[in-house]
Design goal:
Elements lengths: L22 E5 L2 E4 L4 E4 L2 H4 L8 H11 L13 H18 L3 E7 L2 H18 L6 E5 L8 H6 L17 E3 L7 H15 L3 E6 L3 E2 L5 E2 L2 H13 L3 E5 L23 E4 L11 E6 H6 L19 H16 L2 H20 L4 E7 L2 E6 L15 H12 L2 E2 L6 E4 L7 H20 L7
Parallel strand pairs: 3-15, 5-6, 5-7, 7-10, 10-11
Antiparallel strand pairs: 1-2, 2-3, 4-12, 8-9, 11-12, 13-14, 14-16
Bound molecules: pyridoxal-5'-phosphate.
Length: 439
């Protein structure tokens, strides 16, 4: 058999990227390779991990569940972990956001959680006889890689070959700091013309992740969602990345006082332990599918919907939230980021240092190649920084020329220091190599 791995990895250019690094085990904020090298996971393994890798409580809960019930068809059947999890999730949503979300639909990823929300919104209006079919979104958003979620997301290098197959979604300009009025005016204008035909507004609250950790204010989110509400447009909050404490509150929508009609969750739902998606919906949307007529049921399923082990992992993760000071850990990370941002701001080769909860991001000047949301996905700077950080045992995966740190909440101060220092030294190396020009 060929020595070359037959695995086709995600978001990887195999022609130019070296062989994948084999990880043997993980613990806390660290990954360990087969050859024993320790790598600090500065991006929570694609934003999924919350309490730390292989958290003993989650491991134990999954082990216990594994010997009892693995998986059962979820149409016509249910089980105790799923029942308990749905109630816990709704209770969390109620205490964080306020009343409104009453039902949970399980799926298996962030993309499916969003895909389900889009189908629920469109189906809701179809079943209630309203001609609302249009979707509006924030320019540059990322909601997944299925055709529905690509349609809702920003158009660019990620999805260019598929553009002719994507359905029409109206994108209003991203509310850059100081330019928020443009976004509001664009939304007002569009709603005046199409408000009565609009089904839903979909957004990543407070931070657009894949677009380059682009942050915007809770106030602007409040204004935009209020405008949509005035026109009867449903709100779909994609909290796949921002949920479970990432932005400093349990859900990002909390900070804007927004209660969405559909809330999409994944990644941190199981503490990042097992794949799972969930879409929370209002009673009103649920009821439009609730009918004598079988053809009005919600025609959607993933084979692994409500997987019992994923439910057990999510329950254990939520119990950690209930019993431990998780938000205080996030606040400590935020405070460390704020201190570090003071140093990075002073560098002439860095722009727009931003901190939102556990997320810190900055843009490296020079070499900006336009990608989704202008984040320069193909940036040479990003690839070189990745290599330099990895040489020093830190995993950061820049989005173009945007470098961000998004660690598991168990990370300690000295590990955070290690990330900042390694980044600082790597930026120096980049400068010495002549990779970028100072502003
Ligand atoms: C905001 C947002 N929505 C949806 C997704 C898609 O999630 P998944 O990769 O689990 O399909 C992502 C993934 O990064 C995301 O950041």
């Amino acid at each position: 058999m060929s020595k070359v791995s037959p695995i086709w990895h995600p978001f990887t250019q195999h022609k130019t990227f070296g062989p994948a690094i084999e990880i043997e085990r993980a613990e806390g904020a660290c990954l360990y390779t087969r050859t024993g090298k320790k790598i600090l996971d500065g991006i929570s393994s694609w934003w999924v991990n919350t309490h730390g890798h292989c958290h003993p409580r989650i491991v134990e809960a999954v082990q216990r569940q594994a010997g009892r019930l693995d998986q059962v068809i979820f149409a016509g059947f249910t089980h105790e972990p799923a029942e308990r999890l749905s109630r816990k999730l709704l209770k969390r949503a109620q205490s964080s956001l306020g009343p409104g979300l009453d039902f949970v639909f399980f799926s298996d990823s962030g993309s499916t959680a969003v895909e389900v929300a889009l189908k629920m919104a469109i189906g809701h209006f179809a079943h209630t006889g309203q001609k609302r079919r249009k979707i509006v979104a924030l320019e540059g958003g990322y909601h997944g890689d299925t055709f529905g979620t690509m349609s809702a997301g920003g158009r660019g290098v990620y999805n260019a070959p598929y553009a002719p197959y994507l359905f029409d979604v109206h994108h209003v300009p991203f509310p850059h700091k100081g330019e928020e009025a443009k976004t509001v005016q664009a939304m007002e204008r569009w709603l005046r013309q199409y408000g009565s035909e609009a089904a839903a507004f979909i957004f990543e609250p407070l931070v657009q992740g894949a677009a380059g950790m682009r942050a915007y204010s809770p106030d602007i989110l409040k204004t935009l969602t209020k405008l949509c509400r005035e026109h009867g447009v449903l709100l779909i909050a994609d909290e796949v990345m921002t949920g479970f404490g990432r932005t400093g509150t349990f859900f990002a929508c909390e900070q804007a006082g927004v209660i969405p009609d559909l809330l999409c969750l994944s990644k941190g739902l199981t503490g990042g332990y097992l794949p799972m998606g969930a879409t929370l919906s209002t009673r009103q949307i649920y009821k439009s599918f609730y009918h004598q007529d079988k053809t009005r049921q919600f025609f959607h399923s993933s084979s692994f919907t409500g997987n019992a082990m994923a439910c057990a992992a999510a329950l254990a993760s939520l119990e950690i939230w209930e019993e431990e000071p998780v938000l205080e850990r996030v606040a400590a990370i935020e405070a460390a980021h704020q201190r570090a941002s003071g140093w990075f701001v002073a560098r002439p080769d860095i722009a727009d240092v931003r901190v939102v909860g556990s997320i810190m991001a900055l843009d490296v000047l020079g070499d900006v190649t336009e990608g989704v949301g202008g984040s320069g996905y193909e940036s040479v700077v990003g690839s070189r920084l990745y290599d330099l950080m990895m040489e020093n045992g830190v995993l950061l995966r820049p989005l173009g020329n945007t470098v961000y740190i998004l660690p598991p909440y168990c990370i300690n101060e000295s590990e955070l220091e290690q990330i900042y220092e390694t980044l600082w030294r790597s930026l120096d190396r980049l400068r010495d190599e002549g990779f970028q020009q100072a502003a």
